[in-house]
Each structure stands twice: as C-alpha cells, then as structure tokens.
Write a structure and sequence with these properties.
4-stranded antiparallel sheet, 3 helices, mainly beta, 13 strands
C-alpha cells in the first residue's frame, strides 16, 4: 500500500521513467476507453526518444493538516527541459481491514493534436504496426510525457512526408520546449 502522498506520486512517475505505461495506467482511478489508451502502451512509451527524469517529489500539504486530499509537487525533466507539476492525491477513510492508501486524482496524460492533408494514418513506433487513422485529416490522442517521433503511414505511391517530433511535458504550455501539435506536409514526387 502507498501509505503517504509522496510515495503514490513517486511510484507513478517511476513507472513512466521506466517505460512501464501499463502499470502507470493501473494507478489511475478514472475509467478510460480503448480509444483513449491507443498511445498509452509500453511499446509507445519505450519508443520515446526521451522519457521523464524525476528530480524531486515533495508534499505541499503539511502532514498535520492532511485530511483526505493532499497536493504533491514533482519536479521532472524531459530531454533536459525542467518542469514541475502539482498532483492531487486522495485516500478513503481507513477501516480495520483497509489501511490508509493514497490514490492519484490526476495524471500526466497530455492531449496531442496530429494533422496532415492526404495523410491516412500515423505511427509513433515507426513500424506501421501501431498506425492509427487520421479521420478528416486530424486526430487528438492522449500520450505520456516524452519526446516522440511520429511517422506518416499509408501515403500514396511516391508521396513523402518528413517524420515529425513532439516534445511532451505536462500539456500546460508553460515550457517553450513543449509542442503538443504535429502537422505533416506531403511532398509529391
């Protein structure tokens, strides 16, 4: 059991740093559809050119004032760019059979917008095995922090589109290094 707020956040971030997206997802308490989980796999997180590095995790809530919620600040970096994120964690009232265990209220899932005219699909692993269709030329997906290289898939014979890189941190847009939008331009032969 995660008996304090910091341990809960540290465990979640350790899973992400180690490339274990499935265990990180298992810590989230809100339900997600299969479509939302499309890029939230171990294969995709492992394909990241750079994952998060944890610098510090500290509670912003005094242990004497903690009731059922606490705020934990984590300082991390992606590709050498530092950022902080405040997590809210909570616990249920402990019982004799169930000790206090802390749970994540929020997460580090970031929405990325992918678009491209005449681009039928994209992949992040680069093998085409994980290709997802771009309906109406664009799509929004959820992804964990990291540096990802997206590849256009299913292009017409002779068409080319350069791979596009996205630096994903926490989706707040506070870091100039973060870009949560990818656009493909198709070059015809």
């Amino acid at each position: 059991p995660r008996t304090n707020p910091e341990d809960t956040v540290r465990q979640y971030l350790t899973y992400l740093a180690d490339g274990d997206a499935e265990s990180a997802l298992g810590m989230l308490t809100r339900p997600m559809t299969d479509r939302e989980k499309r890029f939230l796999t171990n294969d995709v997180l492992s394909a990241s050119d750079s994952r998060i590095a944890i610098e510090s995790v500290e509670s912003l809530t005094s242990k004497w004032s903690v009731v059922s919620r606490a705020t934990v600040r984590a300082t991390m970096s992606v590709n050498g760019e530092r950022f902080t994120h405040d997590f809210t964690v909570y616990h249920h009232k402990p019982t004799k059979d169930r000790p206090t265990e802390w749970y994540l209220f929020d997460d580090l899932l970031v929405t990325i917008h992918i678009s491209g005219d005449q681009v039928p699909g994209v992949s992040v692993i680069g093998s085409g095995a994980d290709a997802i269709p771009l309906t109406s030329g664009s799509r929004e997906l959820r992804i964990f922090p990291g540096v990802y290289t997206f590849t256009a898939e299913g292009l017409a014979q002779g068409d080319r589109a350069a791979p596009q890189q996205a630096v994903i941190m926490d989706g707040t847009g506070t870091s100039p290094a973060e870009n949560t939008s990818v656009h493909f331009t198709v070059n015809k032969k």
